[in-house]
Amino acid sequence: xxxxxxxxxKAFAADLRGKIAEGVADVRARHALVPGLAVVLVGExxxxxxxxRNKGEQTREAGMHSVTHRxxxxxTQDALLRxxxxxxxxxxxHGILVQLPLPAHIDSAAVxxxxxPAKDVDGFHVVNAGRLxxxxxxLVPCTPxxxxxxxxxxxxxxRGLHAVVVGRSNIVGKPMAQLxxxxxxxxxxAHSRTVDLAxxxxxxxxxxxxxxxxxxxRGDWIKEGAVVIDVGINRVPARxxxxxxxxxxxxxxxxxxxxxxxxxxxITPVPGGVGPMTIACLLLxxxxxxxxxxxxxxxxxxxxxRGTPV
Length: 310
Ligand SMILES: Nc1nc(=O)c2c([nH]1)NC[C@@H]1CN(c3ccc(C(=O)N[C@@H](CCC(=O)O)C(=O)O)cc3)C=[N+]21
Description:
Blueprint: E1 5-6, H1 9-31, E2 36-42, H2 46-61, E3 65-71, H3 77-88, E4 95-98, H4 108-114, H5 126-134, H6 142-155, E5 162-166, H7 173-182, E6 186-190, H8 197-202, E7 206-209, E8 227-230, E9 234-237, H9 241-245, E10 249-252, H10 257-261, E11 266-267, H11 274-293
Parallel strand pairs: 1-11, 2-3, 2-4, 5-6, 5-7, 7-8, 8-11
Antiparallel strand pairs: 9-10
Helix pairs in contact: 1-11, 2-11, 6-7, 6-11
The structure holds 5,10-Methenyltetrahydrofolate.
């Protein structure tokens, strides 16, 4: 039994961002099109602040136009809806991302529904979810899109493989299952009410863990040689008790990584796995949305022979 290959999402994402930057330079030169992304952050959650700052920097590095709207935590739903409407009508903006979670007094579903589906670079609008489900061109949620890219890069053809997705959220589990189905996998969607979750996972050639529970998937849940994609990003107390007492934390996934390495054929780490791919795919979706707004194909440096990004 050999140790799993570690899938380097950080390096893959850096490479993808390089290709996106070339694609942006191409549409700027040939079509005077500058893809623009607007990120809206309500409230001051420190983790969200870091993440939003990274998005802004990487967007600009790719040659795109980037605006961040930071609104106070007590912003009314009406004010947020007015901002979304303004961005919907702003021709310099091709992608709109409203950072989740929103404060409890705001109805997230109402806000997501107000985003123009053509600018919905998170792929959370019901129109995009529906288009993905029936196989029409859609803006696809960034995290599952990034996972699919890592899987295809690791495995090649996914045809006929049994994929088990643990987690049924609208932002990861459900769209992940749709993408795997489209790639000709046999797909099982498991969740907290699944009877004998461990046994279900053991049948997976491809295991995608997206439950948000630190290290829930154990090593012996994994079939020998399976490819494991860990979507979880959980902050837990530092290993060292003194450091933990001082409030220091570390990031772990939904998979017990050290155990899993002994069983898996390949596995994504946390950090440095799926997380960086999520942001790279946000940039890709912004470029896609900008091109579609002008009826253009995606530039060739970010597409496969079939003209799709994956
Ligand atoms: N509308 C909306 N869309 C989102 O896509 C969205 C959101 N709201 N709310 C918050 C979550 C979280 N999220 C992350 C993306 C990348 C990393 C990431 O790059 N993580 C790095 C490092 C993390 C670190 O060191 O803190 C890694 O895993 O290697 C993390 C978290 C997107 N989200």
